[in-house]
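Re: the request from the purification team.
They wanted to know what the chain is likely to look like in 3D before they choose a buffer screen. I agreed to run a prediction and write the result into the notebook, where they can find it.
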Amino acid sequence: MYILRKHILEGGLSTAERGERFYLVRESILPEAIRKTALVKMLLDKGEAKTVNEAVAKAGLSRSAYYKYRDGVFPFYTAAQEKIVTLSLTLEHRAGVLSRVLNTIAGARGNILTINQNIPLQGLAHVSISLETAELRENLEDVLYKLRHLDGVKKVEIVGQS
């Protein structure tokens, strides 16, 4: 998932003209130039390319396209660093499911701030968890992937971020 700044989607209007807003967008629906811009940024961040020229060549993107989009494209985990994220989860009502969720978050060094679990109905419990992401050892996307694949976890969504 990627975060797009609103001014990219509105023809380059400045943040002062429109106020800065962000959109959470699935990678699969993004234009190729934006996906490749994100790849170039990742190559540079990870040190897999030392210069912009080297990174755009590896990604198959023109320098002009990279410079056009670079200030408005961020992988989701970058935008979520040093934030509080609230998750909504649907869990099977079985012993140990919530414990595995909490251990997964703790294992990634997520700092859990609040947990709210509703009374289970029809074998499912709805849980909301707020956590700080500043100390995460992993990308938030990777933590969400692990949570979604835990036995007994039916659904995981981000419902808030501050």
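For the purification team: The mean pLDDT is 83.
Please add any questions underneath this entry.
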